[in-house]
Amino acid sequence: MTSTAPPTDPGQWIRGITIRQPWASCILVGKNTENRPKRWPWRGWLLIHAGMKKPDRAALRDPLVATTIHGRELPLGAVIGVARLIDCHSDQGPRRCTSPWAQRDAHHLVLTDVQELALPVPATGALSAWKPSQDLVEQVLQQLPHLRLAAHTTGSER
What we know:
By secondary structure, the chain is an alpha+beta fold. It has helices at residues 23-28, 57-60, 63-69, 134-143, 147-153, and strands at 14-19, 33-36, 44-50, 78-90, 107-122. The protein contains five helices and five strands; from the N terminus they run βαββααββαα. The two termini are 27 Å apart.
């Protein structure tokens, strides 16, 4: 019989990424590229964590951001969704990196399979990729139970 429980160490198949608002909420509704100053070796599932600091006020005035998050809450200090990180590449210029979210001179984390949590889960993040606790992962899996299967099939994507 095959177990449906994820591996006991969530660090085997999922990481957390802390992103300042409104950028974290933008990912939930179409931002498929997250910009970082350096390359990320991790591939696989990510908890999308909205940082605890105040939202980036300048970003709120950006027309693309304002249109994307119009009418949405901007939770702080909580996991608000999950996504799969499938690639990370350095900026290759506007001809190769066509996402409107791609910043020049940055590394682009390419995200797919984004899923929003119905209820944000309070959590503390970190500046770099972080390993979530088993309790935090369980709280997320209560809302997205189908990810239990992903824990078994994507654990080797490091």
